[in-house]
Amino acid sequence: MKSLKIVPKDAFDSFVRSLAEDGEVVAPVAREPGQYVYDSVSDASALEDEDYIPTLNPPKKYFMPAEEVLFKFTGKGAPTHSGVEVETEAQAEAEEEIVLLGVRPCDVAAIRLTDQAFEDTYEDEHYLNRRDAATIIAMNCQELCDEHAFCAAMGSLKVEAGYDLLLTDLGDAWAVAAGTEKGEQLLQQIPGARDADAAAQKKLQDLTDQQEENFENVKDRLDFPAEDLPEILGEAEDHPAWQEFGDECMGCGRCNLVCPTCFCFDVLDEVDLGLEEGERKRQWDGCTLLEFAMVAGGENFREDRDERLRHRFYRKAKYLPERYDGDMYCTGCGRCIRTCLVDIDPAEVFNTVAEKPGGEAS
Amino acid sequence: MTKAAEQQGSVYVPEPATIVDKKRMTEEETWYDLRLDSGEQLDHDPGQFVEVSVFGVGEAPISISSPPSKEDGFELCIRHVGNVTNAIKKLGMGDKVGIRGPFGTGFDPDAVVGKDILFVAGGLGLVPLRSLIWTVLERREDYERVIIFYGTRSPATILYEDELKQWENDPTVEYHGTVDMADDTWKGNVGVVTTLFSRVDLDPDNTVAFICGPDIMFRFVVQETEKVGIPDDMTFLSMERRMKCGIGKCGHCQEGSVYICREGPCFSYEQIKAL
Amino acid sequence: MKPRVGIFSFSSCEGCQLQILNMENELLDIVGAIDLVTFREAMDPVARDYDVAFVEGSITRESEIPMLEEIRRKADVLVALGACATIGGVNAMKNKFSPEENLQEVYGDAGSEYYDTIPTRGIDEVVDVDYYIHGCPIDRTDFAQTVTSLLLGKRPYTPNFPVCVECRLKENVCVYDRDDDEICLGPVIRAGCSAVCPSFGSACIGCRGYVDQANFDSLIKVMVEHGIDEEEAKKKLRMFNTGNAKAQEVEA
Fold first, then answer.
1. Which of A79, A251, A272 faces C213 most closely, judged by CB atoms?
2. What is the pLDDT confidence band of residue A171, given thresholds at 50, 70 and 90?
3. Would you kindly state where each structural domain of chain C is located, as residue ranges?
4. Which of residues 63-92 of A touch B (CB under 8 A)?
């Protein structure tokens, strides 16, 4: 049985303050009005920001930084020249502990999805070590945070797993649910935490009912249940709308880079001018970018913008779901819509290609 | 995971290997014989690949061309087309490269015992098939007919010429070669590789085809295998994509729900059709 | 053997050469790795032959053409250095007018007696160019990266994705989401500058040239939505790129 406790807000704030004294705590904070980023905080005030919308970049930056060194190498003389011995040194050591505070359910869902990809067969220690060192204190959403978000349609409004603690706002207190053993232990340490009495239970239930109501119209952003997407897309490969979306698309990669479930990367070698020390690093990449599927000989397997855009949507809602037990790799967080300068909206794209050209539903 | 990666706790760290022999095969391709410095064997399946590193330049996916039975080390045949493969060109015997792998899913010789085996290779496509051809020939009695079709652009671009002669002279192998464009020295067949299908009678009920070459060649060759009546699940291909990490993470080689570097590069035609 | 390297200059402010001189931390490593034989900004011209030529500046006078051709003949590797050399740069803005008008505007009535001028071109419209170091001015780490790549015998890394990518990697607030009225060319301009202008409160003005497959129609629409008219939008796209071979696509 997972524990549930009620913690007065001032007690929780003290708890966060003590966490921040012992280590790093990050939460969504406004860099400018309406522009949020995960950044260091010293208390729990970020949880009370009523203007919150999803952060510019998702919390994946803490597990898979935009750029990171995979390993370093040293070799006397140019490594490409004859007779050079090269030593390698991996850079995947255990990481500093970090607490992510106020992670919304859409991002909790996304973290579970990227965990799954990096755990798949070959464990990616770079990601997983950082992930192990992180504590996720999630926070339920009572109202839609942003016009672009369609989380409820993608099934990521409520999360059952992926967090250590999950907060629900009861007004003067937080309902704090543990999701993991780590969360259970943390919960024991919160001073002033008390068991949820009948009144609190009732209030939680009311909030859940209210949430259901508040998000009812968000579910309608998709004309069909999200789990139908793989099949719908299976029928829609030659839909003429792809060309139209592709004509609008700038192939700029912004949607990929801000996506909490995009984890593709490019790999680059860098060497110092003395040619003795270098590193191999990886950097976020995006499948809508021109050279993403280009091989060394110059052949590009997705040369046109519309093919690349279509690939992105298929990866989110067909390819990866087929690979991972039906899990949608779109959480409906809406970041891609907000960042897209030509307003390409996945929900709209999915609805459009689900219709047979001419208007009839397929 | 390679030994170096295991020791260092990262699937991205290559282990050192030494070039023990090399030979220029054509204008564009060089053959290499390599040993892992750890002394371990790669322990690969025919059709699998390794990621070859030249530190400071990068990594490139290269098919393993030697059969798993080769006792020390492994062989690669590298076409010099990109940064990494051009840097390898400058390396000589005794020089080091980094190796990760073997990666991907290869061809399974056990699954086709008792069959007539048809190999269709175009250009560099002979490289991954060579590993399987030798594996089949080593246990020749396990199979019925062995037929090899090999097509290249010109006589100058033919790979493994000595071995082709061996196969040509082997009474248990039906070898047929062709070139798209002949020169004065060429006495053999001229035309694309599909023209060779008219030279043999194939038994659609007992033939399994292994095809490797450029994408455009696939499309024409499978038309022929379909015409013969070889079932799609008895037709196997190896696909080329941008395989960067080799372990199904970086996303570049995704095609449908599979990563070519993981579930491929070898697939049955039935699987490819579903992608 | 260290490669013999020459740095040459045509019509430009020579600011890219200056960027190299400004590489205080790396300069000793650079001169240790290469044999610098010609570098006008820093030394008297001495060399008659060289393996690698870095060429800054655009071609705007007839007399520059044979000089550039001579450099190409001597150098095994020719690298275009900076926006003037790679795409014509701001110098090419004059191409919107006739050479006669250019001379009249700059030198007055007597101009044509003393000077000649031709439409500005990036150097690859005159000779073959092996590699490009983009930007106005060039980025110093890009120069260092190019030198190490040449020493390693690999093709220098030149991103073919837009500045937007680097802005997202740095988690910048998009110029179009800021409350100033800046217009940004980031979505169609080649990255490699670490999005330096948007990162410091300015906007991308296009000095690194267009990415391949740039979608000008869409960006012009975006610019118009953000308050400038289509002609103004095209002017912005042309500022550094009038001499860019892909500039016709902007007009189309």
1. A251
2. very high
3. 4-152, 163-251
4. 70-71, 73, 75, 78-86, 88-92
Pairwise CA distance, residues B64 & C157, whole Å: 28
**Would you say residue C108 has pLDDT above 90?**
no
Asked whether residue A260 is domain-assigned, the answer is yes
**Spatial distance between the Cα atoms of C137 and A145, rounded to a whole number of angstroms:** 42
Interface A-B: count of C-beta contacts within 8 A: 148
Chain B residues within an 8 Å CB radius of A295: 240-242
- pLDDT of A362 reads 45
Residues of chain B in contact with residue A85, where contact means CB-CB under 8 angstroms, are 16, 96
Overall size of chain C counted in residues: 252
Q: Which domains does chain B have, with CATH numbers?
A: 3-103 (2.40.30.10), 109-274 (3.40.50.80)
State whether A71 and B98 contact (CB < 8 Å): no
Residue where the block lists tokens 């035609």: B269
Res. A106: pLDDT tops 50:
yes
Q: Do C215 and A56 touch (CB under 8 A)?
A: no
Task: Tell me if the domain spanning C4-152 has CATH number 2.40.160.10.
Answer: no
* Residue A360 located in a structural domain: no
A199 interfacial to chain B (CB closer than 8 Å): no
The pLDDT tens digits for A134-162 are: 999 999 999 999 999 999 999 999 999 99
Distance from CA of A298 to the nearest CA of C (A): 13
- Residue A91 in any domain: the answer is yes
- pLDDT score at B10: 86
Mean pLDDT lowest for which of A25-34, C38-47, C50-59, C208-217? Answer: C38-47
Could you please report the per-residue DSSP string of B83-141?
HHHHHHHT--TT-EEEEEEEESB---GGGGTTSEEEEEEEGGGHHHHHHHHHHHHHTGG
Percent share of chain C, pLDDT over 70: 97
Residue A89 lies in a domain: yes
Judge whether C146 and C156 are in contact, CB under 8 Å: yes
Q: Encode pLDDT of A49-70 as tens digits.
A: 999 999 999 999 999 999 999 9
This complex has an ipTM of 0.94
Asked if B252 lies within 8 A of A285 by C-beta distance, the reply is: yes
Does pLDDT of C90 surpass 60? yes
* Number of structural domains chain A divides into: 1
What string of DSSP letters covers A32-90? ETTEEEEEE-SSSGGGG-TT----SS-GGGGTS-SEEEEEEEE-SS-TTSTT---EEEE
